[in-house]
Every structure is written in structure tokens, then in C-alpha cells.
Amino acid sequence: MKDNSHNRIVRFHRLGDASVLEIEQLPVTEPEEGELRIRVQAIGLNRAEIMFRTGTYLEQPELPSRLGYEAAGIVEALGAGVTEFAIGDRVSTIPAFSQGKYGVYGETAIVPASAGAHYPENLSATEGTAIWMQYLTAYGGLVNVGHLQQGAVLLVTAASSSVGVAAIQMGKMLGAVVIATTRSAKKRDFLLSTGADHVITTEEEGLVASVMKQTSGRGFDLAFDPIGGTMLATLGEAAAAGATIIEYGALATEPATYPLFAALAKSLTIRGYVLFEITTNPQILAEAKEFIYTGLKSKKLTPVIDRVFPFDEIASAHRHM
Amino acid sequence: MKDNSHNRIVRFHRLGDASVLEIEQLPVTEPEEGELRIRVQAIGLNRAEIMFRTGTYLEQPELPSRLGYEAAGIVEALGAGVTEFAIGDRVSTIPAFSQGKYGVYGETAIVPASAGAHYPENLSATEGTAIWMQYLTAYGGLVNVGHLQQGAVLLVTAASSSVGVAAIQMGKMLGAVVIATTRSAKKRDFLLSTGADHVITTEEEGLVASVMKQTSGRGFDLAFDPIGGTMLATLGEAAAAGATIIEYGALATEPATYPLFAALAKSLTIRGYVLFEITTNPQILAEAKEFIYTGLKSKKLTPVIDRVFPFDEIASAHRHM
User: Which option is the CATH number for B133-276: 3.40.50.720, 3.40.367.20, 2.40.50.100, 3.30.70.1350?
Assistant: First the structure.
């Protein structure tokens, strides 16, 4: 007989590598005011969860801790005051909450109703988990912060990540020329298939020289970079006059050098950016969702699923990332 | 008998300290199309000229080279096509030209007519040389780039420089709360007299703690910084969420560290800025001149003259800076 009062939830009791993730039988709890409970059909994995597990994320876990930002499933319980969803609705989650409090890795997940979103019917539940983090992050960077214009040159670094691919697709949707960078030639064909106009493999060619070659010596107008470190100085050199560099991560371990002379000579703007700017602003979030729906329906935005793992293999899935 | 065909011009034949400046008898030349010749009554000194003399400025001199951005005097000859000035007009110069080609240190100076400006009658010629570089630089930074709002907190670093003082006065004119920083207590009273609400002496107190104390823990909204180097990391810590840091110089000799984690946590914007952005845009320049005229007439902007030297003591004047 199935025990409906308990369900399987992923938690970790100490910081560390993927092996700290445990699947535990825990009571199913009821949503509080303004919350939803979702019967989870698929979860998506993000780098933010790996950083959270290892204690290097903006939010520090209180142990034992849940984790996870992205799930898709069916609404099965509504907290008081929730009117925008009904039992049975197909929703996926927008990463606009504390991972430690609401982490969605489990058979059920409770999230704030403001973090639930209907997703287009032409997408599977698995695809439904591969929308919000990446496209909202790209939208906030390219549209809200970067004001990317038609015909402008967008440089996407570390482009084979889920956000990188989202930025390539969204850059093309906005009419930009998109240059993608990746370390080795391994991902070149994949990046071209996502719509990038040019791919620079940084282990094989100089980023600055390649950008200058592709832009007739002008440089890029907008860079979307999760690396930091010495990359920032390189980006300063490859920038066009008046360019903006958006830093949205800290993948590099060395300190980031500010390219002061390039910034002065070319009036560069460097902007630190995180997704929460978008998800905490209801108006911008609504505009972003509308834009993403439109892109998903027209298939200008098409979620890319790298690989699907069974729930029981969550640790292997983390290792795969 | 006075020889009207020649006049005294300051030039340097090699890069170096103030002693490389020489006063030479050179022919008086005629303005070409679109240029003015001014009988110089006073010149103003800027750090940009010291950097030019030592070869560390954005523009490199072709030796022997003239130098100098700011002069005030009387128009005495007009090139073809110049209609906005008449012989006898009282003008001062806006630093919107090559120092090497047009340098104004001399008894006469030829400048592009677009770099000439009438200045308010309530100012002396000496004061007329102490307007454009500093107030235009401050205007471009605070208004055009920084969008400084009434009630916002403006932090002005290295505040006792001419641009620093201009930024304090303009910050107050715009209704901001102005915090000025200076190394030692020596300049504290002077900075308070220019209108600063608070003065932080960085040799005696921590910048971050002092800014936080003055802003109830919120931090500054806009910083206007010509230092760079390790100051940039300090500014990252002292910034409020959503703040902008304008870098407009490179006084520090050590590399500037980009405060990546503060930038991500607080969505910081760091913007490299130079005066030429303003002086090369006719519409912005016209708006800036109008704003500065208004401020000078109302005495909300009052040029501060540190010390006046005779023309023959140009090298001493440079040493004094």
C-alpha cells in the first residue's frame, strides 16, 4: 500500500560533492498562505544548486537542507489566498525563492504562488523545467540591463551553459549578431546549431583578435559573461566604444581585474547582474514571461535538454554537470 | 618697439618634470577655417597637462609640443566661417581639442570656435579659466552618466581636486547629500566650505565604515572617483544596492580590482568616463553649458582659485600642482 503521507525529498546533511545528496522519506506538508504544492513530474538542474550544495552560493544552506530551483508538475494543493492557479494546472517554477526553504528536488514541492508559472502546451514537463532560470536570466541581462539593439554585436562567453544557449537564442530573437565563446572545439557545432553566428574556441584562438576580425575591428556592443577573473580584462580589450559588459557569475577562481584604461578610453559600462533583479520586480517579471512565452510558441526559443536522469540518480545527474 | 609678429608660447621638447617647460618666442599665426585666436589673459592648469608633459595622458605629444586646455581672454582674430564670436568678445576655452595641436599656454592661443565659450560677466578672466574642465567633467559624470537624483547620496573621492570641488558644488545644486573624501585632515575645513555635507579623511577613518555610518548602513548611490586601484574594491563595499561607480581617472598606480561579489550582490554599475564624451556631443555640451551658466550666475557654482602665478613662472605653477 502506498503511503500518501510521506514522499521522497532530496536533502544534504553536510556540504560537499554530489555524494552528499540523500533521498529521504519525509512527510508531505501543506502549503501555507500564498503557496502551492506541486506533484513534481520533472526537475531541472542548475549550477546554482551545485554551488549551494558546496556552500559557495549567495545563499548559505541551513543543514540539513533541501535544494533545487526548477520543477514542472501539476498543482495538487493551494494555500490560502491563491487565486491564480487551480488544482490540476500544469506549472513550472521560476527561481524566485530561497532554495533552502523551498528546494524543489522531490516528488512534491511547495513554492510561493508568485514563483509558479503556466508554460506553453507544446512543451513537455521536462522542457518545462528548462525555461525560466535560463531565459529569465538571459532576458534580464540582454533586454533589461543590456538594452540589446537589433544589429548590435552580442558576445556570449561560456556559451554552452544553459544560460549561454538561452542568451544565444534570445540574442538572435532580438536581431543581434551573436558571437559565442567556448573553450574547446568540442562544442562548436552544438553552438552553431543553437543559432550563434560565430563561435570562438578560446583554447585555439585569441578572443580579442577573433572578435575584432568578426566585427571589422569595432568590437562587441554587449558581452554577457559568467566568468569574471582575467576574462574581464580580455573583454575590456574586445569591447567597442560605449559597450556594456554584464557580469553574471564568478566561474573564474582568480580575482577579476577591472580594465580601467579600456574603460576610460571606451566609456565602458560593467554591470553586475543576478536573476533576482528580475524575479523580484513584478512588472519586469511579467514582461519577461510574456516575451519568453512568445519566443517559446514561435520556437525562436527552444529549450535544449542535455540528458534526462531517473529521480533515484540525482547524485549521478549532479556529477554529470 | 614691441614685435607683434611674435609672442611667448610654452612648449616642451622632451617628456619629464616641470623643468622641461620652456617659454619660447614663436610667430603669431592666423586662425584657419572654424578657428579663433584669443589674446590670452589667464590660463588654468589641469592634471591632464601634467600627465601630457610626462607622457602618461591619453594623447601622446609630438615633440616639441604645446600644451594646455584652459585659457580666458579676448577674441582677436576669426578664421573663415566663424559667426558665433566677434573680435573683442570675452571667451574662455572648453577642453574639446588636441592639447598638442592647440595647447593654450601662451600669450595667444588658437582654438576651434566650437571650443570657445562666453562666460558670465560676474567672473574674472582668472575665474573664467576655472570653469569648463571641472564643471563639464562633473556635469557629464553626475548628470549624464550618473543621473544623480535629489536626495541621493553622492560620494566624491579625491575631493580636493578642482573636479572634486566642482562635483561637490554640483551635487549640492542637484539636491544630493554629498560625502567627500580626502586623505588627511588638512583639507577638511576647505571641503566643508565648498558645501560637502560630510568629509571622510581616509588616513584617519575607514571609508566603508564612515559611509555606512553617514547613510544608516545603506551606502552611497553614486560615487565619482578618479583614483581606481584598490579604491575600487573599497567603493564596492561602501555602495548601496543598485549604485553606480564612475571611474574618471587613474591616480592609483596599482591595478584596479573589480569587486565582482559586491557587484553581483548589489547589481553595481561601474562606468569609465572621460570629459570628451560630453565635449564631442554638441547637444549634451549645449545642455551642460546652460546648466553651468545658471549655476555660475546663481553662485551655486563658484570657481575656487588655489593660487595665481605670473606667466613666467609656469614651471613653478606646475610644481605647485
Answer: 3.40.50.720
